[in-house]
Design brief:
The chain has about 220 residues and is mainly α. About 50% of the residues lie in helices and about 10% in strands. The protein has a 3-stranded antiparallel β-sheet with strand order 4-3-5. Strands 1-2 form a two-stranded antiparallel sheet. It is elongated, with a radius of gyration of 23 Å.
Length: about 220
Amino acid sequence: MSYIGRQKIFINNKYKLWHDNIIAKAKNRTLEGYKEVHHIIPKSCGGTNDKDNLIALTAREHYIIHMLLPFCVLKKYKFKMIKGFMYMNVKPKTTKRFYKINSKMYEKFRKEFSSMLTGVKLSEERKAKMRGKKVSAKTKAKIKYARQFQVCSDEQRKNYSKMFSNMIWINKNNISKRINKKLKQEYLNKGYKLGRDMSYMTDKTRNLLSQKTKAYWERRVA
């Protein structure tokens, strides 16, 4: 039995049929020029780099496959597939693929993504792990790059404004954080001070930030 035959992650429907037709077509040809390697069983669902789990696709085929996957996998894998497809809509550095989905498709995936998060409760162990997680410089660079192409709707801006209007900055031992205004006195009693910690702000740092801000607005105006 092949590698694919041993994996039970798919459900049979029209999306699976479209998915399989693209894969079958790709197996019977040799692509010339630009191509992308696809894991038939996604790595996040237990797939490996075995030869029979890899297939060469055009950029367009690869994109369509990942658009179909959330609708033809078992429910426990759906969240990962939606997340994977949303990441494909961030302009990549290393590939020639860059597509933008229309508003209806974006809304559909966002609703699916949101519904799968509703009611999810994190264990105390998971919460502690998230609080203590350190983001590497490489990951920070990826996040910064992706945010260049992030566009907030008017509704999102209003939600952000509403959320942060109830938050204030406090600091203690050179560490700053935001808290809800209702918790202000509680934190002051613990020795926190109002405002952000600015002890790191030397003249050199202040000048550097000033130059970056000026350069940013010059680019915006140009």
